[in-house]
């Protein structure tokens, strides 16, 4: 998507295979998750990456830690809101969206 907007943008992928499991185990801000996050952030910091789109639903749970470890040098984006808005628009477009605010049964 980024390349569709700007053909000169550089996109970098950073695998984080251990992070979701640590988050599921409740490691949100201890030495285990800090060590793993530091390891995964190093290549991004060395390449002077400006923006990271969090690519897993688990990662926003450690977003404050990621921001702390990068001292604000990287902007982290949680795509959940944009994704939910896209789903809402598609449901509305197919006349399937239920605008009620009360829980269903």
UniProtKB/TrEMBL annotation:
InterPro entries on file: Asp/Glu_race, Asp/Glu_racemase_AS_2
Gene Ontology molecular-function annotations: racemase and epimerase activity, acting on amino acids and derivatives
Protein name: Glutamate racemase
Organism from which the protein derives: human gut metagenome
